[in-house]
Design brief:
Mean pLDDT: 97
Helix content: 25-40%
Structural class: alpha/beta
Strand content: 15-25%
């Protein structure tokens, strides 16, 4: 029996003169072999037929009752999130608690979106199940991100196969096993494994892939889903810009820049990755950013008063270091921190004078770094903000003219003097940050087949 072992990020360290890396195991799960997939999919196909035959309201009630079972394991889920991906206990508790508290409302919203609509007295729009949906979820928000895709897929009448990140297998196992205390057998299954398993799942006899992860993986999924014309909903990361105009509320802009760059140790798809600040206010802005960033506390998930946890694994840790070192080699200045940190942490870091030649500006960092550049012309700032294959979110802080600047930004979600995105709007990525979207009625309906029925 092959197993997948989960390691605690806070315990990563180098041994033998730095030649090897060791970490403490949190636990392990049995992996799903590629040879087992046909059985999993066959079970999902059979279960889906019976599940789809139930009335929409009954499927909705099943799902709500299943989510109620999670209250008994809420603390255990939060602890596992901290142990497996390093998120501090307070934030992990918010993630799990928020998912549970919103489950009833979310299910009701989905049910309303998928209810049959009367077009005229002889025609109606029906939202029918697609079949088997593969949900491939990330490690940075292992409950919340999976939930955003699982629930609409299930209520729409599909069966679901969840392939979680190999970084958080224990969270997924407990999450799915708890839901399955109520759900009919094989309506929801979890498969555990690495990238090869995910690729095999995408290529298998399924009907839809709902994915959150990297742009490179998204392109691979799209190519492999093409032969079956499988439905896709994909969020593929971001390199989110922030523009700070001369008329901005300075303290509000500083708070947002730091909080958005450091949240979840910077391991967030809508983390602010690039800050373009008007040179007229740049000195004050940078000083205040450094002062606020200096107050952030770094530590393990269960340490007191921690704001920034460990980086999830050595590969991601090294990627952040490479970007910082590339930036300093090309002329950037570090105002706080350094470009070298030992595993597993990256201390709060503030870098200025970034340029388009630097990896720190061109690529998604996924680390606790505030990367700043000054501009003298707003058109220059807009051009640099848009100069990316990504287009998930963007923000503008400013007074008069801020909305006009925001209108020119190429992103699926744009915020003016606030963060991008809203609970009352879908989660949308533009350009290569997304394909399809989820959330609200329009997003929920992407998990269903529209059928026009005329009588």
């Amino acid at each position: 029996m092959a197993v997948l072992t989960s390691y605690e990020p806070a315990s990563y360290h180098k041994v033998d003169g730095g030649e090897h890396i060791e970490a403490t195991a949190v636990g392990s799960v049995e992996t799903t072999s590629i040879e087992q997939l046909p059985i999993v999919i066959s079970n999902a196909q059979v279960a889906q037929k019976a599940w789809a035959s139930l009335p929409l309201v009954q499927r909705q009630q099943y799902v709500v009752k299943a989510y109620q079972q999670l209250h008994a394991v809420q603390d255990e889920l939060a602890t596992l999130i901290g142990q497996e991906m390093g998120k501090d206990y307070r934030r992990a508790t918010y993630e799990v608690g928020g998912t549970l508290q919103n489950a009833g409302y979310f299910a009701s919203e989905i049910g309303d979106a998928l209810a049959t609509e009367q077009v005229d007295n002889r025609t109606e729009l029906q939202y029918r199940p697609l079949g088997v949906v593969a949900v491939i979820s990330p490690w940075n928000y292992p409950i919340a991100m999976a939930n955003n895709l699982l629930m609409p897929a299930l209520i729409a009448g599909n069966s679901v196969i969840l392939k979680p990140s190999e970084q958080t297998p224990l969270v997924a196992e407990l999450f799915i096993n708890t839901l399955n205390k109520v759900l009919p057998q094989h309506v929801l299954q979890v498969v555990q494994g690495d990238k090869a398993l995910g690729q095999a799942l995408v290529a298998a006899d399924i009907n839809m892939v709902a994915f959150t992860g990297s742009m490179a993986a998204g392109k691979h999924i799209m190519a492999n889903a093409a032969s079956g014309l499988k439905r896709l909903v994909m969020e593929l990361g971001g390199n989110d810009p922030m523009i700070v105009m001369a008329g901005a509320n300075m303290d509000a802009a500083v708070r947002f820049a730091v909080a958005s760059s450091f949240e979840n140790a910077g391991q967030m798809c809508t983390s602010t990755e690039r800050v373009y600040v008007d040179q007229q206010i740049a000195d004050e802005f940078e000083q205040k950013v450094v002062a606020l960033a200096s107050r952030y506390r770094v530590g393990a998930w269960d340490a007191a008063n921690v704001n920034i946890g460990p980086i999830v694994n050595p590969t991601q840790h090294q990627k952040v270091l490479e970007q910082l070192q590339d930036a300093t080699a090309k002329g950037a200045s570090i105002l706080l921190g350094s470009d070298h940190y030992e595993l597993p942490f990256i201390q709060p870091t503030v870098v200025t004078d970034i340029t388009p030649k630097m990896l720190l500006e061109r690529e998604e960092t996924f680390g606790p770094v505030v990367a700043i550049s000054r501009f003298s012309d707003i058109d220059e700032a807009i051009s640099r903000a848009n100069n990316s294959h990504y287009g998930l979110a963007a923000v503008v802080f400013g007074g008069q003219g801020a909305k006009a600047v925001a209108e020119q930004l190429e992103a699926g979600m744009v915020g003016v003097n606030q963060g991008a995105g809203s609970g009352n709007a879908p989660w949308v990525g533009a350009k290569q940050s997304g394909f399809g979207f989820h959330g609200t009625a329009a997003g929920h309906r992407q998990f269903a087949q529209v059928r026009v029925m005329s009588y």
